[in-house]
């Protein structure tokens, strides 16, 4: 891991009251969550509903570098198909992970893609060309959610270059501050034991089953065979004690 990249202080941007109110709605929705899983889902839903960010990701790890190694990240519906390629390959060369950004205070803060570009190495160019650009994504912001026991990383992505500016950075900074420590609110034990027993592959398949995708759709999205999907669903249902997809979806939602 390279030494932390020290970013220059950002210019202040005064958010209008309407934006502050929208951010607070997102925060309130997250704080009211029943579990870490629920928190992740509510936060991405809130970002889309209240702030219009529809291409989003949520990774969790023990620390900021570990965030990008999350084997079961949550991606919004618009970019959910990118989960497999990122987890299998591209997390290793993501510039947001390998450049280890930090603010002037030494604490991780929101980082915009443009701040990292001057420091790119060849592998970061490959990430841009083979992952972001190939999937028609041209701008990105990462928002760290800091805790004592775990750390979250929320990603905002855009279809046009230069989409994110001072307003988005101010929103991201407000979210980082308002949600500091919240990610520690749920102990691992608050997730039902059967969920904790799922492998990363089983968890990815289960999430898509609950969203209503068919086996063929899941296979296409995760770049695996239909028989592999069936095998994972059988394993998930055995661990959850359910007999079909409807029961599995109901038990999943009951577990938060």
TrEMBL record:
GO process terms (BP): regulation of DNA-templated transcription
Gene3D superfamilies in the record: Winged helix-like DNA-binding domain superfamily/Winged helix DNA-binding domain
Pfam family, one: GerE
Location of the HTH luxR-type domain: 191-256
Keywords: DNA-binding, Transcription, Transcription regulation
Protein name from the UniProt record: Helix-turn-helix transcriptional regulator
Keyword Cytoplasm: no
Molecular function terms, GO-annotated: DNA binding
Tagged with keyword DNA-binding: yes
